[in-house]
Design brief:
alpha+beta; 5-stranded mixed sheet; 11 helices
C-alpha cells in the first residue's frame, strides 16, 4: 500500500528545510555582522600604523602631531558616522566632517559635556575604567526616540569614538522580530494539523479511503505552508534586492491573467465584465514576472470574496502619462476600521480571518511593495457588505 509516496515525503522534507532556513537566517546575519566589525577594527588599526610609519619617514612633515592629525582627518572624513578623536584625558582633539555637522565644532571639550545622555555616560565611564575596546548601544529619547551605536578603541595616543545613528536599523530589526513572531503564529495551525493527521494515519486499521483523505489534508496543509514561506521570502527579496526592470506589454499581461481566471469566475457563478481596450499598445517598465503576481493576487481576492451571482469588473483608463487598472468586486467588502491596515504584513480583516478562504495576510503587502518599489501606486476603497475596488496607477515613460 503506497500511501506515503515520494511526493508526500518530498513535500514534508521541503517544508522542514524551509522552516529551518527562515529561523536560522537571522542568526547567520548576526554572525556575519560580528565578523565584519572585527575585520573593520583590524583594518582601521593597520591603516593608521602604515600611514603613520610612511609619514614619519617623510622629510616633508617634521611635526609628529600634525602627521597624526592629518592621517586621522584623511581617514575619518570618509565616514558618514560622527567620529571624535580624543586625547588621553578624553578631551576632543579633532572631529570628522560628519561629527562637526551633527554636534558642531567642539575642540578641547570633554566628550561627556557634548553627549550628555544617561546611557552614553554610563557606558563611557565603564570604558574609562576598563580602557579596552568597547561597543555599546544607547538611545536618545527627546525630542523623538533615536538609537545609536558607539565604538571606542585606542590608536596610537588617541581614543577613537565612532557614533552611528542606527534608528532605521533598530526599527527594521523590531519589525523583523514582529514578522518572525507573526510567521511563527501562522505556521502553528497548519503544522498542528499535519502532526495530528500524521499521528492518525494507520495503514493497518483504517481503510485505504480514510488514510487517503488524511494524506490529502496533510498534502494541502504542506502546500499552504510552502505558499506562506514563498510569500515571506518574496517580501524579503523585494526589501533587499535592487530593481532590474524590463519592458512589459500591459494588454498582453492583462489578457493572460484574465484568460486564466475567467474559467474560475464562471465555475463559481460570478459574472466577469472586462473592458481593457485602453491598455492596447501600452508598454511600461517593471521587474520581471512581478506584475503577473500583482494581477493574479487582485483577481484571486476578487474571486475569493465575491459570492455566487455577483459581478466583478476589470477596466482600464488612460490619462496623459498614466494608465489605471481597476478591479471592482461586489464581495463582502472591508470595514473602514480595517481598510488602512490591509497592506500591513500578516494583517487580515476579521471576515477573511474567520473563513476558510482567508490567506496569510501577505498578498496585498507584496502587491503594495512591488508597485511602490517600481515607482507606481496602489489605491483602494471598500464598503462592508458592498464590495471593494483596487486601482493600480502605472506611470508611463
Amino acid at each position: 500500500m503506497k500511501l506515503l509516496n515520494k511526493n508526500y515525503i518530498n513535500a514534508i522534507f521541503f517544508l522542514i528545510a524551509n522552516i529551518v532556513l527562515l529561523f536560522f537566517i537571522q542568526f547567520e546575519l548576526v554572525l556575519l555582522l560580528l565578523i565584519y566589525e572585527v575585520i573593520a577594527i583590524l583594518f582601521v588599526k593597520k591603516y593608521f600604523e602604515n600611514k603613520l610609519r610612511d609619514k614619519q619617514k617623510s622629510k616633508d612633515i617634521p611635526n609628529n602631531g600634525s602627521i597624526e592629525k592629518e592621517i586621522t582627518l584623511d581617514f575619518f572624513d570618509q565616514y558618514s558616522s560622527a567620529v571624535f578623536v580624543l586625547r588621553k584625558d578624553f578631551t576632543i582633539y579633532t572631529q570628522n566632517l560628519s561629527c562637526k555637522s551633527i554636534y558642531g565644532e567642539q575642540k578641547d571639550k570633554d566628550i561627556l559635556s557634548i553627549i550628555r545622555d544617561y546611557d552614553f555616560i554610563v557606558q563611557f565611564e565603564k570604558f574609562k575604567k576598563n580602557n579596552s575596546y568597547s561597543v555599546f548601544n544607547w538611545s536618545k529619547p527627546l525630542p523623538t526616540r533615536k538609537y545609536f551605536k558607539t565604538e571606542i578603541f585606542e590608536i596610537s595616543k588617541f581614543y577613537i569614538v565612532i557614533v552611528t545613528d542606527i534608528t532605521f536599523d533598530k526599527i527594521k530589526e523590531e519589525q523583523q522580530g514582529d514578522n518572525l513572531t507573526s510567521l511563527t503564529h501562522e505556521l502553528k495551525t497548519p503544522l498542528s494539523v499535519i502532526i495530528g493527521y500524521l499521528e492518525t494515519v494507520d495503514l493497518n486499521n483504517l481503510s485505504i479511503q480514510e488514510n487517503q483523505n488524511y494524506l490529502d489534508i496533510i498534502n494541502a496543509k504542506t502546500f499552504q505552508i510552502r505558499d506562506l514561506i514563498d510569500q515571506t521570502l518574496k517580501l524579503a527579496e523585494i526589501e533587499s534586492l535592487s530593481i532590474q526592470k524590463i519592458s512589459n506589454d500591459l494588454h498582453l499581461l492583462l489578457e493572460k491573467s484574465l484568460e486564466n481566471y475567467s474559467i474560475l469566475f464562471k465555475k463559481k457563478g460570478i459574472q466577469l465584465h472586462i473592458d481593457i481596450e485602453a491598455s492596447r499598445e501600452i508598454f511600461f517598465d517593471f521587474t520581471a514576472n512581478d506584475f503577473d503576481f500583482i494581477l493574479n493576487n487582485l483577481l484571486s481576492n476578487a474571486l475569493k470574496y465575491t459570492p455566487t451571482g455577483k459581478n466583478v469588473y476589470v477596466t482600464t483608463k488612460k490619462l496623459n502619462n498614466k494608465i489605471s487598472i481597476m478591479i471592482k468586486d461586489e464581495g463582502i467588502g472591508i470595514s473602514q476600521n480595517d481598510l488602512h491596515k490591509i497592506t500591513t504584513k500578516f494583517f487580515r480583516a476579521d471576515q477573511s480571518r474567520n473563513s476558510e478562504t482567508g490567506g496569510h495576510g501577505l498578498g496585498l503587502a507584496i502587491v503594495d511593495k512591488l508597485l511602490s518599489k517600481n515607482g507606481h501606486k496602489l489605491e483602494f476603497s471598500s464598503s462592508l457588505g458592498e464590495g471593494s475596488t483596487f486601482k493600480i496607477d502605472l506611470l508611463l515613460s
